[in-house]
UniProtKB/TrEMBL annotation:
Pfam families, per database record: muHD
PANTHER family referenced in this protein's UniProt entry, alphabetically: OS08G0243900 PROTEIN (PTHR37769:SF1)
Lineage: Eukaryota, Viridiplantae, Streptophyta, Embryophyta, Tracheophyta
PROSITE patterns documented for this protein: MHD
Protein name: MHD domain-containing protein
Annotated MHD domain residues: 392-632
Organism, scientific name: Rhododendron griersonianum
Amino acid sequence: MSCLALSLQPTNGSDILLQTREWFPPARALVALSAFRHTRMAFATGKHQSVEDGDTSLGDDPLAASSGQLIVGVESRYRVVYRLVNSIYVLGITTADQDDSMNNVFECISIVNQAVSVVVTACRGVDVTPEKLSRKYAEVYLALDIVLRGVSNIRLAAMLATMHGDSIAKMVHSAFDTENKVRGADSWSIVEMQAAEQQAGVESFSNASFELPLETLEAGDEVAVALAPNVSGTLSEQQDKEVKSEEGEGEKDPFAASNALGKPEELLGGFKKDKGQSGTDLTLALAGLEVTSLPPPAATESTHIGVEGFEGEYGGIEFSNDGSTLAEDFEGMNQAWGGGLDASEFVGPKKVPKSQGLGGLELLQTGSDAPPTVPAGGATPLENFLVKKTEMKGPEMYISEEISAEFRESLLARVGLMGVVYLRTLPPNSSGDKETEFSFKIEGTSGVKRVVMQSSRVSSLGNGMFHVRTAPSEKPIPILKYSFLPRLTPLPLRVRLIKRHSGTLLSVMVQYVSNPDLPAPLTDVTFVVKLPVDPTLLKVSPKAVLNRSERELKWHIEEIPLKGSPGRLRARMPVDSSEEDGGEEIEVVGYVKFSIQGTQSFSGISLWPASEGKTDFYQVNHRYESGVYTCN
């Protein structure tokens, strides 16, 4: 249900009009309108009170904008979409549920926009007042009733064109066939009449019979004879041949000898003689023959393997025309392909002593007791050819979270945490294009503000359980997105920026301290300070990197301890302006960048299978990184 009710509410005074759907009680619509009015009045009263007190930091009236939406109600919650036209609020009421709220909002906004068009047309302009609406109250009432039940833009344009100067009945009923006329199509009555005429014509022609006169038939016979004069003679000859063949077959003895016994043998009877040059041209005779080509010379050479325990020449057979025998060509095969697999050359005649603790695995050693030497490169030649690759056992899921915060000196001004749940399916090649389908549940969502899921792949089962079904993909698929309440968002790092401008000398200090409740200390943290000018002289502590093109000063901290004293980053530089000159205040902004991975998400949200003891997916390391983490 997209829109449940439409209403016209002036900024001052009682409601002008209320139009509801059949199944929506008007009493509930009045409750929603009253809550919207009280909310609007409360905002306006707070704004006036703040202006009288001298505090103008609250901004404008949030409901005095040209359009917007507001959720009202306590037990029964409704979403009110409004547009302010001059001094009249055009309101659309819909449900505030979480499953299909986005569809409700967009459809309700479209209906409210159509209602605005009706109101503006009735008042002949944007100067909409209650007095002008009262003059066209009947037309507006019926037009909003049609708009509330759904109307196309073509029919709406026809209704608005007939609102002034024509009767109400023509405005309401003449628009049914407007869309068909605009598109060039016929109305249903015309199409139905054409179909009835076509059916009557088919029935009349199917039951009709025609009798040709005798003169017409005789003229047709004469034309047929003129066109085919030898038809009768040809038919008689065919009948004579059939009679003769039947007589010959009747006189034939079934036990008589075959005539093929008396014929001489013809060896070349099945071959057709070619009088061309193919008899003398050998290339044409050999064109259809396929001859297997020999391998290239490089393929016949042996390959030398220098891995310890497997040294030797492998592969390669020499082709020659010396007429050697098969035994001579493969004489070296009894030496374990060059000695690489002959254990007697490496182990020795003595029995290898069996030691305790390895369970017999020491018998796999084929070299001496001394450990194998590792080349200077750090890896044996065999390890250069072997690459370890971990294969996926099944679908994998992980959480990627991003936190943004703004500190003004030591006070936290703003904070926000956004998280995304990713699904990595088996590759299409290994899964055979089989869909991935399983159920999972999410725990630790007490601080979640809002959750948005990709409905084409995920469906909610209630109580924090979800069911996913999707086709395999090469890239990770984002299936859920959520945001945290600011008051419940944990902070990984507190930052404070202090600046002092004395004379022509500017001093900046950044203090930072880690959250002791983190599962692991932050590593590879980068602090960036935007400098107001390109410094000619700069003194920093500890060492930092200066980017003159971007006017940035960067510190890289390898690790911030969980329970340690606050860290300090200091910088001092001369500037052109002086504090005594009374110019604009120098602005210095700092940024923090970090990114960590771990088995636990920073927000405390965890993923679990829907049923215990069943592994439908595998969890990999979760990601946690900083977004816009600033201090000034």
